[in-house]
Write a sequence for this structure.
């Protein structure tokens, strides 16, 4: 006998909605999970802004809002235009430009490595490589992308600098420092190649064969099709991959900390020691900074600057994907 | 009669008695139509998929729905157990009475409705579980877990699959052939013992031999269930159904009558053209 | 012979030369990354091999002792156990919330602004530098809730970091479940949650597990967030539990790689070999899982 039907009830009653509390609970719980991700973003903003406020003023933002009154201790002009970063010096200076100089040095330099090589790799994978070559090359690139950045840092100081950079420049009588920006540029460039290559290749694969055939039928050769048809047709995806690679390079931490050293410096020479925003944060966290000290708060001011830069890059990437998405049927 | 057939018929007998007791209350209403469709129409967004439909579907008979592809046959079928609720842009108007209760009333729970009205789909869709667990799925979901083994066996026998799978019930359902998978899906649908069984071109993905088995099965099922079957195969409809509904282009129900009338003496000229192959 | 000179007016010499040059350029670029990977692995193996050979670092000590101030007594076990603890806690913290979010977004979420906001936010979270997650946990948990620099705080940072990866890969796994299975289940009278619980999730779980293992393989090599949270760089003792201070494999590598003196560099290389071996096994497990189950659907 079935247990859930009561013969005394009519058919109509059996199909009438019961109060299904379980389903509503499940749904609410799952929404809660998804909401945590939004909460994380909000928390990042709140924490960074609140503590960065404490860097520029003598109290944190929530204290200033609750109690009122805050005295500025570091001006925005000093922070954004000052050319000396020395937070723990006896005459401290808080100009972030040297750190931004280091970060941009690595980012721009790495882009010169990863963008051309990554794009060429994508073209090779999408337009030239035979399936069996492709099926070996792609996992190898995945491995390259999966190597921890600390290992790239070790590679820079144990191989790139001593075996490649220093002997090479000695040929020209130039002495490269043991910690130097060029080593960081090279390893960050290498680690972002897979990102450029795989996202660009996806975009190229999405270009329909009709377009290629149209060009071939006009007597175009393979490289003319690659550069003249496929690349322009997939340019938004390709461009998005560049921005992602740049965003990744801005936030890159361990490889640059190991390779480039910890000397804040305004310089355009790739052969000297420098400091990025991220390597400053690593060096300061090691120093057991006391909570509430200017040292501790400076972590968050620099962190906020870094976050805003990567956020801008991510939003730009999002915008490009939305705005210029090619739709092929 | 061989010994195996002997045990089988004994088991059948046992099972039938059991069903009789479960269904005793339903017998009294045998003369009423199970489903009464009144001015039922469907829109997908702005597009009208079904013109207002009126029909009375009799109990424990096979009702076939035929028509050219894209005529709204499947859409109509999915209205009956409210599977269209799953599609965001789909809106349904009019009424559809199941034992006198409009299933589109606000207080009707589609989940409860689907426990009364089962469905078999065009492509076999066994779950990636064992054969046994597939058939037991609906029973477990609906809490009918007493005598689980008997109920599973009964459903598999009714679906004419028992003899082929009885010694490998623990194997994955995905290892069965296409025809076996579809009969498994039929077994899964009838295991919880619904009243109405909707079938959406259940044989279209099968080879002729498997199709013949499924057709035999459908005729047998009508002894216990109300079957509504969508098919694009007119011969199939003529072979297995008692009533036939003909939908033509634009989602319009053009004629609904006894199958013999539809195929021998249709009232509508367009239906005659369609039946004789001058159309679609 | 007929046809001789038919194409004489078409001169493809330059086009072909340019084509060949272009092809070689693309090929060389593709090989560049692989060659660099080869150099990296050889370099690490060479440096690691020199440890026991030239500096007589004992492999047994290395694998069975915690770190030490003396290179010949320095072991990796404290860091390895720290990483194991971190991974276990990270998986507990991120798996259920991540899979829950994915189920909500794929199976429940209506197409509203809030849903689109959550989806867009996921893309953004995936692009946040890992060090920022460390900063967040430092401010909220380590100093805010005054938990201190404990193992649990480190795993919270890693859990936040891998959450977007787990969500996105789980969404893909759920999307790969054929809609016919959902229909089959709901036509049997299953509620939405019953369908998900009994049909969709069992079918998607291999894909979800693959994504989770890959996410963990990424988390185990993350250094910066742990440094920000205040991990002990040199794990001189074994961690006792989630509320103990902690070291980890990558922070130990950082410590050894920057320590002055030639022996330390070799210890760092040996530690890298262990870390890469663990990561590669995790990746291999994920690939095996994927190949084993992907034909089933």
């Amino acid at each position: 006998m079935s247990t859930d039907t009561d013969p005394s009830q009519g058919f109509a009653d059996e199909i009438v909605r019961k109060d299904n509390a379980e389903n509503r609970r499940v749904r609410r719980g799952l929404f809660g999970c998804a909401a945590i991700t939004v909460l994380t973003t909000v928390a990042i903003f709140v924490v960074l802004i609140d503590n960065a406020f404490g860097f520029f003023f003598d109290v944190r933002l929530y204290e200033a809002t609750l109690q009122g009154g805050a005295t500025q201790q570091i001006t925005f002009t000093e922070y954004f235009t000052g050319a000396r970063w020395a937070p723990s010096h006896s005459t401290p200076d808080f100009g972030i430009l040297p750190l931004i100089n280091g970060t941009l040095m690595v980012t721009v330099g790495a882009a010169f490595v990863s963008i051309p090589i990554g794009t060429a790799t994508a073209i090779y994978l999408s337009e030239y490589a035979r399936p069996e070559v492709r099926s070996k090359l792609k996992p190898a690139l995945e491995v390259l992308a999966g190597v921890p950045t600390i290992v790239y840092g070790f590679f820079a100081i144990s191989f790139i600098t001593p075996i490649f950079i220093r002997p090479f420049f000695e040929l020209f009588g130039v002495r490269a420092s043991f910690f130097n920006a060029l080593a960081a540029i090279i390893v960050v460039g290498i680690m972002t190649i897979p990102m450029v290559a795989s996202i660009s290749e996806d975009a190229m694969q999405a270009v329909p064969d009709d377009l290629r055939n149209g060009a071939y039928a006009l007597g175009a050769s393979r490289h003319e099709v690659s550069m003249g048809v496929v690349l322009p047709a997939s340019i938004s995806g390709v461009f998005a991959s560049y921005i992602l690679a740049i965003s990744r390079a801005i936030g890159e931490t361990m490889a640059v900390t190991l390779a480039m050293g910890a000397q804040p410096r305004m310089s355009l020479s790739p052969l000297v020691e420098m400091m990025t925003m991220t390597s400053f944060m690593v060096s300061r966290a090691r120093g057991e900074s006391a909570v509430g000290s200017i040292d501790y708060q400076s972590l968050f001011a620099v962190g906020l600057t870094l976050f805003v830069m990567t956020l801008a890059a991510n939003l730009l990437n999002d915008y490009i994907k939305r705005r210029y998405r090619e739709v092929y049927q | 009669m061989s010994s195996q057939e002997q045990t089988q018929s004994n088991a059948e007998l046992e099972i039938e008695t059991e069903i009789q007791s479960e269904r005793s209350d339903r017998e009294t209403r045998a003369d009423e139509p199970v489903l009464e469709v009144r001015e039922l129409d469907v829109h997908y967004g702005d597009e009208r998929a079904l013109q207002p439909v009126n029909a009375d579907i009799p109990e424990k008979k096979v009702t076939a729905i035929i028509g050219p592809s894209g005529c709204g046959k499947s859409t109509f079928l999915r209205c009956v157990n409210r599977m269209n609720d799953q599609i965001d842009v789909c809106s349904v108007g009019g009424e559809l009475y199941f034992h006198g209760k409009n299933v589109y009333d606000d207080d009707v729970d589609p989940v409860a409705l689907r426990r009364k009205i089962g469905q078999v789909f065009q492509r076999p869709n066994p779950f990636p579980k064992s054969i046994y667990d597939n058939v037991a799925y609906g029973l477990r979901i609906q809490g009918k877990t007493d005598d689980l083994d008997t109920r599973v066996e009964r459903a598999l026998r009714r679906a004419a699959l028992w003899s082929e799978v009885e010694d490998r019930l623990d194997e994955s359902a995905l290892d069965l052939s296409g025809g076996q998978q579809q009969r498994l899906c039929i077994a899964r649908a009838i295991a919880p013992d619904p009243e109405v069984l909707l079938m959406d071109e259940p044989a279209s993905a099968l080879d002729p031999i498997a199709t013949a088995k499924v057709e035999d099965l459908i005729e047998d099922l009508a002894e216990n269930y109300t079957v509504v079957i969508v098919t694009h195969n007119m011969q199939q409809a003529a072979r297995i159904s008692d009533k036939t509904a003909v939908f033509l282009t634009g989602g319009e129900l053009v004629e609904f009558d006894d199958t013999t009338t539809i195929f021998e003496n249709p009232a509508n000229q367009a239906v005659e053209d369609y039946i004789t192959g001058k159309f679609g | 012979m007929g046809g001789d000179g038919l194409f004489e007016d078409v001169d493809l010499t330059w086009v072909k030369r340019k084509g060949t040059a272009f092809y070689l350029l693309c090929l060389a670029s593709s090989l560049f990354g692989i060659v660099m990977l080869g150099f990296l692995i050889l370099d690490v193996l060479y440096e690691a091999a020199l440890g026991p050979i030239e500096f007589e670092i004992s492999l047994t000590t290395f694998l069975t002792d915690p770190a030490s101030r003396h290179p010949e007594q320095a072991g990796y076990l404290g860091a390895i156990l720290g990483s194991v603890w971190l991974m276990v806690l990270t998986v507990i913290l991120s798996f259920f919330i991540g899979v829950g979010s994915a189920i909500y977004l794929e199976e429940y979420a209506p197409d509203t602004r809030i849903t689109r906001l959550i989806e867009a936010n996921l893309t953004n979270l995936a692009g946040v530098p890992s060090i920022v997650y460390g900063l967040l946990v430092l401010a909220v948990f380590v100093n805010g809730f005054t938990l201190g620099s404990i193992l649990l705080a480190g795993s919270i940072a890693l859990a936040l970091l891998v959450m977007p990866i787990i969500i996105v890969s789980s969404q893909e796994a759920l999307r790969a479940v054929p809609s016919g299975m959902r229909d089959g289940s709901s036509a049997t009278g299953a509620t939405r949650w019953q369908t998900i619980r009994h049909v969709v999730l069992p079918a998607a779980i291999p894909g979800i597990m693959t994504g989770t293992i890959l996410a963990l393989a990424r988390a185990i090599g993350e250094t910066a967030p742990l440094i920000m949270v205040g991990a002990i760089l040199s794990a001189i003792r074994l961690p006792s539990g989630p509320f103990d201070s902690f070291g980890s494999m990558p922070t130990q590598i950082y410590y050894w790689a920057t320590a002055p003196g030639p022996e330390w560099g070799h210890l760092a290389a040996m530690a890298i070999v262990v870390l890469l071996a663990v990561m590669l096994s995790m990746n291999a497990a994920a690939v095996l899982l994927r190949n084993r189950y992907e034909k089933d659907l």
User: Anything to note?
Assistant: The radius of gyration of chain B is 19 Å. DSSP finds eleven helices and ten strands in chain B. Chain B touches chain C through 32 residues (CB under 8 Å).
